[in-house]
Design a protein that fits this description.
Layout: E1 30-32, H1 35-46, E2 50-54, H2 62-67, E3 71-75, E4 93-98, H3 105-114, E5 118-121, E6 135-139, E7 150-153, H4 172-179, H5 186-194, H6 206-213, H7 217-235, E8 253-257, H8 263-269, H9 281-284, H10 290-297, E9 298-302, H11 309-322
Parallel strand pairs: 2-3, 2-4, 4-5, 5-6
Antiparallel strand pairs: 1-7, 6-7, 8-9
Helix pairs in contact: 4-5, 7-11
Bound molecules: pyridoxal-5'-phosphate.
Length: about 325
């Protein structure tokens, strides 16, 4: 019988980067390198040949569709961001729905009961646990300071052994955010994001795994909920989007939809950086569509663990001075 010996543990040498040992938030899920690759994994396991996905989503999700030669059709969402399903989902086709801002869990639950071959994109809903028997994926860098990383919930595996990704070359923006400042790391952030394109499906890197294990998830979730509720209290009367947070939901941002052009640019001029979800939508839809209006006018206010009530008040005051 062949016996295998483990490599001997190194003793001594320099002191390595110390990160808090903690727990993984989704220990029961499959840790992969990117959200788009988690989608590829699902498509390969289930062997779907057609996918319905919303116009209102990120274009990187097309990567696996092109790679696997999957036919795709876009669908529209209504003013509550619920899908308008006016097509039939056949045996070999599937429906991808995004849990927008982490605030559409009720719709996800309803779809899971009523829709065949549902795939849930929880990239914006890190803290929402998957629903049994519903293929679901997550992307970690939307919520935490990691270069990459994703989780996948699926009942069946691909049956191939996956290499482990390495993130070391994609971390400069994270290091610069501490050593310089977040603005000086921005160009690196864009470059490092490009490096996530067209990678093969791999296991999550050791580095992202370790960073994620050091996070105080309870605290991060609580701060997000508190900040969200603060903004909701001060801004909901002006908000065209009526998405109420269910008690267990932990949103990614506070989505403020206004019928006033240019507010986003004026906030950015005041150093309140709000992302556009998603610039590619401008190229995909008609200018008079709801999706165009959403992409143009939605102000995604940051509510994450870096901020407190004073920061939320700063944003409310800045907005009030513009409205
Ligand atoms: C809604 C949504 N889903 C999925 C993804 C893909 O995640 P990843 O960058 O980890 O591939 C993104 C963004 O990149 C996204 O915004």
């Amino acid at each position: 019988m062949e016996t295998q010996t483990l490599p001997a543990k190194t003793i001594g040498g320099y002191i390595e980067l110390q990160l808090n040992p903690g727990r993984i938030f989704h220990p029961e899920l499959l840790p992969l390198n990117t959200g788009r690759n988690a989608l590829e994994y699902i498509l390969r396991v289930r062997q779907y040949n057609t996918i319905y996905l919303p116009y209102y989503t990120c274009d990187v999700l097309l990567e696996p569709l092109h790679k696997l030669n999957i036919t795709y059709h876009f669908y529209k969402v209504d003013e509550d961001l619920d899908p308008i399903i006016d097509f039939e989902i056949t045996e070999k086709s599937c429906l991808l729905y995004t849990n927008y801002y982490g605030l559409k869990t009720e719709t996800v639950r309803r779809l899971a009961k009523t829709t065949k071959n549902l795939i849930v994109d929880n990239a914006q809903a890190f803290f929402t646990k998957p629903i049994q028997h519903t293929d679901t994926f997550y992307s970690c860098r939307k919520f935490f300071g990691v270069p990459d990383g994703a989780y996948l919930y699926i009942s069946k595996n691909l049956g191939i052994s996956l290499k482990q990704d390495r993130s070391v070359e994609r971390c400069s923006h994270l290091l610069k955010s501490i050593d310089l400042n977040i603005e000086e790391g921005y160009t690196d952030y864009i470059e490092n994001n490009k490096d996530l394109c067209n990678r093969e499906i791999m296991k999550m890197s050791a580095l992202s795994t370790r960073i994620l294990a050091g996070i105080n998830y309870e605290q991060c979730a609580l701060i997000r909920q508190r900040n969200y509720d603060f903004l909701h209290e001060h801004l909901s009367s002006k908000n065209l989007l009526q998405l109420n947070r269910a008690p267990e939901e932990v949103p990614m941002v506070y989505p403020l939809l206004l019928d006033i052009a240019g507010v986003k640019q004026q906030l950015i001029a005041k150093k309140i950086f709000v992302a556009t979800y998603w610039p590619n939508v401008f190229d995909w839809v008609e200018t008079d569509s709801f999706e165009y209006f959403l992409t143009n006018n939605l102000i995604a206010l940051p509510i994450d663990h870096r901020y407190n009530a004073d920061d939320m008040m700063t944003m409310v005051k800045a907005l009030n001075s513009l409205l």
